[in-house]
Each structure stands twice: as C-alpha cells, then as structure tokens.
Amino acid sequence: MTKILLSGCNGKMGRMITACAAERCDCEIVAGLDINTESHAGFPVFGNPFNCGVEADVLVDFSNPGALKGILAYAREKKLPAVIATTGLDDGQVEQLKEASQEIPIFFSANMSLGISLLMELAKKAAAVLGGEFDIEILEKHHNQKLDAPSGTALMLAQAVSEGVDYTPQYVYERHSVRKKREKQEIGISSIRGGTIVGEHEVIFAGHDEVITLSHTAMSKEIFAQGAINAALFLQNQPAGFYAMKDLVGAL
C-alpha cells in the first residue's frame, strides 16, 4: 500500500485525487498540505509541510507555483519522491525541479493524461513528416478559471513538435499586433477560456489543399487524478532522477 502525502488536497484536483484514491486498493492518502487546513476526508491537513509528522512514501503536488519552494525543501529533507503536477511553473522553477532530482526522484508533467502523452508522440512524428511543407498551429481550450495561458500542455506539444522539425521554430502567441504574412518557421499557439471546458488540445498541420488535425479532449479531471496516482506508484521505487510521462508509459 503506497502512502501518499497530497499537496493541494483541498483544491479541485486534490479532492478528485482523494476520491480516486479512496476507490483503489494500492494506495491511500495519509496526510494533506493546503493553505486551507480543513480536514474533510479523514486524514490530517497541514498548512506547513514541516509541521507534518505523518510518514509517507511519495508526495503528490497539485497546488500552486508559489508553494513549490517549500514543498521541494521538505521533499529533499525527507528524501521523499515527489510528483509535481502543478501547472504554471516558470523556467526557473523547472530548473529547481531538475536540481532537486539529483537527490530525489522527481516526476514532472504539466498534464498527467496518458492520452496527451500519446498525442505528443504523434505530433512529433507528424512534424518530422510534414513540418517542411505544412504550417503548424496549436489551439488549446480550458475553463474560465484557468490562470495560465497558454497551457502547460500546449507548450509541451509545441516542444514535441519542435523536436520533430529540422529547424528552430518561433512560438507566436498573438498576431493582432503585427500586420505581416505568416513566417514559415512559426508555430502559432492560441488559447481559449470559457465555461467549464476541462481541456481540449489540437495540433493543426495546414498544407496545400489539405489539413491534418491531431486532437485530445479531456471529459473530466479524473484522468489527471488517476495519472498522478499512477505516477506516484511508479516513482516510489525509482532512483533519484528527473522523470516524465514517457517514462511512466514505457513502464506500463
């Protein structure tokens, strides 16, 4: 039975992970971390990780970028493997994760969906085949409460596409401020925010008289919760290092 310390336990994703874990027999949430210390699921909740005296096998973080420093400090002190699923981290914070991964196992992904991992591989392959002749655009849609734009998943897809082409692409996030034709080496990344859209991503390859679209639609947050739990189970037995969804997929 894997014991999970859940950071962000009282947020929407934290509550979803708690519900999913309750239905499984291979793991349990033994304690939570949150600025809201209300305990609603039978385990204690702490506002400061260093006040947590509960032993755990792995930490899962679905909180806020501002909490990362304290969470990493705690994980490094306790030699605790950490699954970081919080979105909106900047480049400096990703470097902090890579530095910590020299001491402890760190699993980082802006999207915990198995389907998105497959979409990235398909996009990379399509870019290698089509990138020289086709224009590439990425469109992402999310609910009206999402703070970051473009989404971390859109940037992951852009990186996958970049690895497939034989040129260094330029990411373009807006076109209204410049009146000019599209450059061949651009990858356009567009964001839509509205309603309760869980998450939709499209990678569009537009060529001469034909368009190829690769897409993924998340119907609920449960896919991300189950992905985070599976990552936790995978990570607890790994040596120090920096892991991603491709490593989890390869182990299945």
Strand content: 25-35%
Number of helical regions:
7
Number of strands: 12
Q: Describe the biggest sheet?
A: 7 strands, parallel
Overall pLDDT: 92
Helix-strand makeup class: alpha/beta
Overall 3D form: elongated
Strand order of the largest sheet: 3-2-1-4-5-6-12
Rg, rounded, reads 19 Å
Relative helix content: 25-40%
The N- to C-terminal Cα distance equals 19 Å
Molecular structure report:
- The protein is built from seven helices and twelve strands.
- The chain is elongated.
- The mean pLDDT is 92.
- The protein is α/β, with parallel strands linked by helices.
- The two termini are 19 Å apart.
- The chain has helices spanning 12-22, 68-78, 91-100, 114-130, 152-164, 222-235, 245-251; strands spanning 2-7, 27-33, 45-46, 58-61, 82-84, 105-108, 135-142, 170-172, 186-193, 199-207, 210-218, 241-243.
- The strands form two sheets. A seven-stranded parallel sheet has the order 3-2-1-4-5-6-12, with helices on both faces.
- Helix 1 (12-22) packs across helix 6 (222-235), helix 2 runs parallel beside helix 3 and helix 4 (114-130) packs parallel to helix 5 (152-164).
- The longest helix has 17 residues, at 114-130.
Attribute tags:
elongated; 252 residues; 7 helices; 5-stranded mixed β-sheet; 26% strand; 7-stranded parallel β-sheet; alpha/beta
What's the short version?
The chain is α/β, with parallel strands linked by helices. It has helices at residues 12-22, 68-78, 91-100, 114-130, 152-164, 222-235, 245-251; strands spanning 2-7, 27-33, 45-46, 58-61, 82-84, 105-108, 135-142, 170-172, 186-193, 199-207, 210-218, 241-243.
